[in-house]
Design goal:
The protein has 324 residues and is an alpha/beta fold. Helices cover 37% and strands 15% of the residues. The protein is built from twelve helices and twelve strands. α4 links the parallel β4 and β5. α8 runs parallel beside α12. It is globular, with a radius of gyration of 20 Å.
Length: 324
């Protein structure tokens, strides 16, 4: 079957690239011919300093896609380009990641990720699509999204809250499925075979948000437990931490794989801790956006790995480290 996938596919983000890789890899292993629709979110303006710092990472992600995701369609620069193209695949899939979060997709057009550009009658489904929030927060789009979702042949979402949103807001029965990164049992193709001699004494910290109180607690815990606090992709020095500023995808995966403990607010970093059987603590990313983390941890019986209050972070790390 010829399948076209629409997702976040060229972001300078480890989770976005790896979830795209995982779903494409799974579909190809099933015998399907897969391509990724090459239309991207418009980039936010960045200062010259930030843009300069992003250059090495853009290069690393480009090389990763060139090696593992080298099957994009022609590039669509605008939504109009996409709408005017011929769409001849047997099936179109949207997902995973927060493709149904208009706060993110408004950088392009939120309705594109509900297949607004496809003609009626074309087979379409979602796989592990995420709204990214606990409730639907874009009432101005509700009727258009509802109309588009009723054209889907099947709908699956990544969080239980997504199931509820589909039912209560759009009148759609959705199935709960796992993030595509959890469909693969091994990432050895990317990061090599596990080598126990590479295990470190690192307390790895990966976050999208600078939180000085959180960082101080982690540094204190690392000192007390003879661990090396290691911040991944931190552009600024953090007292008590060493840093890995620029990492390839394999280096990021192996930083998690060989750590003693990981503290993160990243959903996909948390997922790879689970895949690699690492001890970890998940902390909130933003208020109202913890459903991705909490829902998965509840399903796996790992709710004690989530720390919603910085005041409890030290004790939560102690608890996780002592789990046998």
């Amino acid at each position: 079957m010829k399948i076209s996938l629409l997702t976040f596919s060229k972001e300078s983000n480890f989770g976005a690239n790896l979830q795209c890789y995982a779903l494409c890899h799974t579909l190809k292993e099933m015998g399907h011919d897969v391509d990724v629709i090459d239309i991207q979110l418009h980039k936010k303006a960045a200062s010259w300093h930030d843009a300069l710092l992003q250059l090495p990472m853009k290069r690393y992600f480009h090389l990763f896609r060139q090696k593992y995701l080298n099957f994009f369609t022609r590039k669509f620069k605008t939504v109009a380009d996409l709408q005017s193209a011929e769409h001849k695949s047997d099936l179109y899939i949207v997902g995973s990641d927060q493709v149904w979060n208009p706060a993110i997709t408004r950088q392009l057009d939120p309705l594109v990720y509900f297949f607004s550009f496809l003609p009626d009658g074309v087979r379409r489904i979602s796989y592990a699509a995420s709204f990214g929030t606990e409730s639907w927060q874009s009432s101005v789009l509700t009727e258009e999204v509802k109309m588009l979702l009723h054209k889907f042949n099947a709908v699956s979402v990544r969080e239980q809250t997504g199931v509820t949103i589909c039912q209560d807001t759009f009148g759609i029965d959705a199935r709960l499925v796992v993030d595509p990164t959890l469909l693969l049992t091994s990432y050895d193709e990317i990061c090599g075979k596990y080598n126990p001699q590479r295990e470190t004494n690192e307390l790895v910290y990966f976050t999208f948000i600078r939180n000085q109180a959180e960082q101080s607690i982690i540094a204190e815990f690392a000192r007390a437990n003879n661990l090396q606090a290691m911040a991944l992709r931190s552009n600024r020095p953090i007292p008590g931490f060493k840093r890995r500023i620029f990492l390839t995808v394999p280096e990021w995966l192996n930083s998690i794989r060989y750590a003693k403990l990981v503290v993160t607010n990243s959903f996909h970093c948390m997922v790879f801790c689970i895949i690699f059987h690492k001890k970890f603590v998940a902390v909130p990313a933003k208020a109202g956006r913890t459903t991705r983390q909490v829902g998965l941890l509840e399903q796996l019986g790992l709710s004690d790995h989530f720390c919603k209050d910085t005041n409890d972070l030290y004790s939560t790390m102690e608890h996780v480290v002592n789990i046998q």
